[in-house]
Design a protein that fits this description.
CATH superfamily of the largest domain: P-loop containing nucleotide triphosphate hydrolases
Helix content: 25-40%
Shape: elongated
Number of helices: 15
CATH architecture of the largest domain: 3-Layer(aba) Sandwich
Bound molecules: adenosine-5'-triphosphate, magnesium ion
Largest sheet: 6 strands, mixed
C-alpha cells in the first residue's frame, strides 16, 4: 500500500486523516489485508511504524507512486502484487479479491482497472518480473504511473463503477465521504433533546438550507433562544446531533467552534453593544482583527455597513442615546462586519414601534435578497415571519409540532397552531 507523501493541497498527510474510527491508511489496509493476506506499507517508517503493519521506505526518493511501486517490487516475495493508494477509501476487499484473481489468470505483467474515467494504475496488480521495467522507467525520468503502464504488457480490467476508485484530494471530498460528520443542509437538528430543570427540547428536528430564512416561533419560555444557543455551540444537547455550516458541531471543542462562529453570527435581543464606544467604534471593534484592511479600508467598511442599515447619521452617537430598534440595526451592522454566511436574530422586532419594526424587516429582507445570507429568526411576530421566512418551526411543549413552508402553516390542524394564528388575527 502506498501510504507516503505529503499532500500539498491538504496541507497534511492524507494517510493519517481520521477515517471510520481509525486513520485512512489503516482503514484501506484492512481491506487489502482481507483480500491479499498480507500488507506492507510503503512510506516513512518513523511516520507509519506504529499502525500495526510492516513499513518499508522508498529506495529511490522523490519518484512518487512509481518509486513506491519500485520499493514494493524490490521487497516482495510474491509473484503478484496488489498496489493500492491509501487515499481510496471506497475500495472493498471483494473488489480487490476479484482483481487479484483476474491478474493471476491474465498472462500479462499487470492488471489495471479501466473505468469510464480512464485507467486506475494506483489500484492495480503488478507482477514481480516488472522490477527491471520500473527501474528503467525511473532512470528515463518517466515518472507517472499512467506513462509507465502504457509501456508494459498490461491487461485492462473493465471496472463497473469509477466511484470505487475515487480518491481523496481535498478536505471537501473527504467530508463528502463522511456523511455522519456532515449534513447536506446548512443547519440541521437531528432528534435533539435538552433538559434544564424540566425538558425544554424534546426530539426536535428541522433544517435550514443555504440562502433560506427559517423562523422559529412559539410561546415565551418554549426554548427558542435555547435553540439559537445550540446553533452557536454555547449549549450542548443531551442527545441528538447538531450540524452548522454543514459540519457536526455536537462534540466540537471551543477552538473548532470559533471557526464556525466566524461563519454564523448572532444578533442578540439586547444588541449587546459597548456603551463606552460610539456606534462607529462598535463596528470598528469587530474589524480590529482584519489584517487584510488598513485603517482607511476599515473606515470605509464602517461607513458602508452603517449606510446598509440606514444608520449613517448615527456614527458618532453612543448606544445609550439610541432607541432599541436603532441599537438592533447597529448590532446587525456589527454582525455583518465579520462577513458571515448566516445570521441568527433573536426577537428582532420585539419592543420596537411599528415603523422601526417595518424598517428592521426591510433590512432583513435586503440582507436575504442582496447578500443571500442564510438566516434563523426567533420571533412571535407573525407579520415578520410571513414577510421574511421561507420555512417555519413551531415549538410547543418541547416539540417541533410544525416544520414546513410558511404558506402551509394555516393548513396545520394542530389546535395550538390554530390558536396561535387566531390570536394573531385578533391582535
Ligand atoms: N442556562 C439555562 N439554565 C437553566 N434553564 C434555562 C437556561 N436557559 C434557558 N433555560 C430555560 O429553558 C426554557 C426555555 O428558555 P428560552 O430562553 O429558550 O425561551 P424562549 O422561547 O426564548 O422564550 P422568550 O420568548 O421568552 O424569549 C425556560 O424555561 C428557561 O428558564
Ligand atoms: Mg428568548
Amino acid at each position: 500500500m502506498l501510504a507516503g507523501g505529503q499532500s500539498s493541497r491538504m496541507g497534511q498527510d492524507k494517510a493519517l486523516l481520521p477515517w471510520k474510527g481509525a486513520t485512512l491508511v489503516q482503514s484501506v489496509a484492512q481491506e487489502v489485508l482481507q483480500a491479499a493476506g498480507s500488507v506492507t506499507l510503503i512510506g516513512t517508517p518513523e511516520v507509519y511504524g506504529n499502525l500495526g503493519f510492516p513499513v518499508i521506505p522508498d529506495l529511490i526518493a522523490g519518484c512518487g507512486p512509481l518509486g513506491g511501486l519500485h520499493a514494493a517490487l524490490s521487497a516482495t516475495s510474491a509473484e503478484w502484487n496488489l498496489v493500492v493508494a491509501c487515499d481510496m477509501p471506497s475500495v472493498t476487499h471483494e473488489l480487490l479479491e476479484e482483481l487479484l484473481a483476474a491478474a493471476e489468470q491474465s498472462g500479462a505483467d499487470a492488471l489495471v482497472p479501466e473505468t469510464p474515467d480512464g485507467l486506475e494504475p494506483l489500484c492495480a496488480v503488478y507482477h514481480a518480473r516488472l522490477l527491471p521495467a520500473v527501474e528503467s522507467a525511473i532512470q528515463s525520468k518517466l515518472l507517472t504511473m499512467h506513462d509507465f503502464v502504457s509501456t508494459i504488457r498490461a491487461r485492462l480490467w473493465p471496472a463497473p463503477d469509477a466511484s470505487v476508485f475515487r480518491n481523496m484530494n481535498t478536505p471537501e471530498q473527504l467530508l463528502e465521504g463522511r456523511p455522519k460528520d456532515t449534513s447536506s443542509h446548512y443547519i440541521e437538528f437531528v432528534d435533539v433533546y435538552k433538559t434544564f430543570d424540566k425538558p425544554v427540547l424534546v426530539d426536535v428536528s428541522f433544517h435550514v438550507d443555504a440562502g433560506e430564512t427559517v423562523a422559529i416561533i412559539g410561546r415565551s419560555g418554549v426554548g427558542k433562544s435555547v435553540t439559537l444557543g445550540h446553533i452557536m455551540g454555547f449549549l450542548k444537547p443531551d442527545q441528538g446531533r447538531i450540524y452548522v455550516a454543514y459540519s457536526d458541531i455536537t462534540d466540537m471543542t471551543e477552538t473548532e467552534l470559533r471557526r464556525i462562529r466566524k461563519k454564523v453570527t448572532m444578533v442578540f435581543q439586547s444588541g449587546a453593544l459597548f456603551d463606552s464606544l460610539t456606534v462607529g467604534e462598535n463596528i470598528l471593534f469587530s474589524l480590529e482583527t482584519r489584517e487584510d484592511y488598513n485603517e482607511q479600508n476599515k473606515e470605509d467598511v464602517v461607513r458602508g455597513l452603517l449606510n446598509l442599515v440606514d444608520m449613517a447619521d448615527y456614527e458618532n452617537v453612543y448606544p445609550t442615546e439610541l432607541s432599541t430598534g436603532h441599537k438592533r440595526a447597529v448590532a446587525i451592522a456589527r454582525a455583518l462586519a465579520a462577513q458571515p454566511e448566516c445570521i441568527l436574530y433573536d426577537e428582532p422586532t420585539t419592543m420596537v414601534d411599528p415603523i422601526m419594526s417595518d424598517h428592521l424587516i426591510g433590512l432583513m429582507l435586503r440582507l436575504k435578497n442582496q447578500l443571500r445570507l442564510t438566516a434563523v429568526v426567533v420571533t412571535h411576530d407573525l407579520d415578520l415571519m410571513r414577510r421574511v421566512a421561507d420555512t417555519v418551526v413551531v415549538l410547543y411543549e418541547g416539540k417541533a409540532i410544525f416544520f414546513g413552508p410558511v404558506a402551509d402553516l394555516e393548513k396545520s390542524p394542530h389546535p395550538h397552531i390554530q390558536e396561535f394564528l387566531a390570536m394573531d388575527r385578533v391582535a
